[in-house]
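Something for you to look into today, if you have time. What I am after is a single protein written out in full by you. I want to see for myself how the chain folds. Could you add the entry underneath, on a fresh line?
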Amino acid sequence: MLKISEAVEAIVESDPVLRPALAGRLLNLSQVARHIHAAVEARTMKRVRPSAIAMALSRLQSRLPDLDAAPRLRLADRITVQRGLSVLTFPNTRRCQESLLSLQERIRKEHGFVTITEGVREITLIVDSSLRAVVDGIVPERPTRAVPGAAGLSVTLTRDNLATPGVLYRLLQPLALQGINVQEVASTTREFHIYLEDRDVMLALESLYRAFGR
């Protein structure tokens, strides 16, 4: 059975809006306590007074870093945009794996865009929508999910960013606050790629620039 403080912290940490609002000292803790009252009781499996939740919130808030005091995250380069993409998810089968080398070679010849992410059960391809017929002709499986009309934002981090706790959370937070749904993400050591619906790309771009400086 969870303690009240543990339940409150779990709820706050899982909410992309509530945590930064608490860190920024923007909320009335009594109101927040009433808002999450039922969720806390469900996690602790007992009746809990709102005043006890407010006390736990106050203690948690005192441990959260002030957003204004946090070191400002700077990007190493301009954010680049790639539009006209499709996100395709396939089952991770041997036939799919064997087709990937041929697919990559063909797309490079076409000077097209491709990102491949291989998981335990699934493989996701992000390609130029104009090359969808090429994918269909080479990959033997049918996609289990296809999202046309996607766009990508590529963010390059500085080397100092790599040691910053929560750096990827801070990149995604401005998008969550705008209600933007992230379709997929991919990364290398210093590059972080965010894929979303094309209609959201300009709002996402402006939100990231305003959050991290131009």
Summary: DSSP finds eight helices and six strands in the chain.
